[in-house]
Amino acid sequence: MTADPGYAALTAEQQGGLLQRFQEAPNAAHDPSTWWPGGLPQLRGPCGAGLAAYEDALKPDGGTFAVDGSTYTIQDGQLLDSEGVVAGSVRTDGTYQLVGEDQPRNYYDDHHARVRLTETEGETTSTLLDLHDADPNGVLTNDGMNDTFTGLATETLRDVRREGIDMRAQSGYRSFTEQDRLYNQGCTTTGKS
């Protein structure tokens, strides 16, 4: 963010505000339009240099992405299927769009999406984001779950995913029989408790 030519053009107060917002929500830093009211126009710099850097930063160099039962390889912001055919696009701001879809979706909001974004500089590859399916066992869709609790849990998962935190729901509603079985495991029966 501080390397963007538009950053130097901001006042010290604006720079301080941006840095504070970054510290409060570091993953939001992938979207400069959220950095400061007015966003991108202030970051364009001379001849749109900041805009080009911003657009490039939206395209992850590599990684993997899985959604709706399909897994894709990421290459320069494109989603490639197992045969190397472009199947869509993905961005560091959370949006992705598969070929044939009218509207982009957001992997932060889809708690079943698995996303690993990487960037390469020279010979060094670093992970930008690594999120797993937040509800791999479907515990939040169990019929026994309270709808209010499920809604709050889903909102929480969405919010922490936006911060780059990889949190998962491991269990939910348990029948008395299931709870007794788990309680007894390791006490009166074999297995981990």
The largest β sheet comes out as: 8 strands, antiparallel
Shape: globular
Strand content: 15-25%
For the termini, the CA-CA separation is 47 Å
Low-confidence stretches: 31-48
Q: Compute the gyration radius: what is it?
A: 21 Å
Give, in spatial order, the strands making up the sheet with the most strands: 6-5-4-3-2-1-7-8
How much helix, percentage-wise, in residues? 25-40%
For the residues shown, what is the average pLDDT? 79
Continuous helix count: 5
Describe this structure as you would to a colleague:
The chain is an alpha+beta fold. The protein contains five helices and eight strands, in the order αααββββββββαα. It has an eight-stranded antiparallel beta sheet with strand order 6-5-4-3-2-1-7-8, with no helix packed on it. A hairpin with a 2-residue loop joins β7 and β8.
